Amino acid sequence: MNANELFNKIVKEYSERIWWTARRFVNSHDDADDLTQDIFLKIWTALPSFRGEAQLFTWVYRIAVNEAMDRLRREKVRAALRFASLDAEMEKRIDNDPWFDGTPAQRALSKAVAALPEKQRQVFILRYYDEMPYEEMSQVLETSVGSLKASYHIAREKVEAVLKEAAAELNL
Fold first, then answer.
1. Tens of pLDDT along 11-24?
2. Which of 63, 74, 85, 172 has its Cβ near the most Cβ atoms within 10 Å?
3. Among 7, 170, 150, 136, CA closest to 65
4. What total of structural domains would you count in the chain?
5. Whole-structure pTM over 0.85, yes or no?
6. Would 137 be classed as within a structural domain?
């Protein structure tokens, strides 16, 4: 299979899944579109280096998650230069996204996940939303299964605490 065929296969098989993963990281429909384009550009550029040592899915997802986290790090620096908080900006994105059609509980969940530390956010998104097995996640994030389980447990507890607080405020 040549590079064009392989790239077309990747786009066909993973576009929707990558877009949703990007969406969960950046909390904005438009930003997810931009990030997805950046991810596929990065995949296309890196395609000649794919040697088949990892599964194609693992390789693609590693690029997607790394690109998403790089984007968030750049945004964090920009926010700091404006003396703003990235967490506050993420909340605004969630509140102002015209494409968000979730319930107040889903909005609270999105905000709780956006406020997690970087590693916990990665693990939570891949495990909770994408239902990725720990073994696969271990390959994508290049971290031990035990560490991922611990990170997910801590992240889940933090999210649950925020959701309990939000439920009380929303009288749910």
1. 999 999 999 999 98
2. 63
3. 136
4. 2
5. no
6. yes
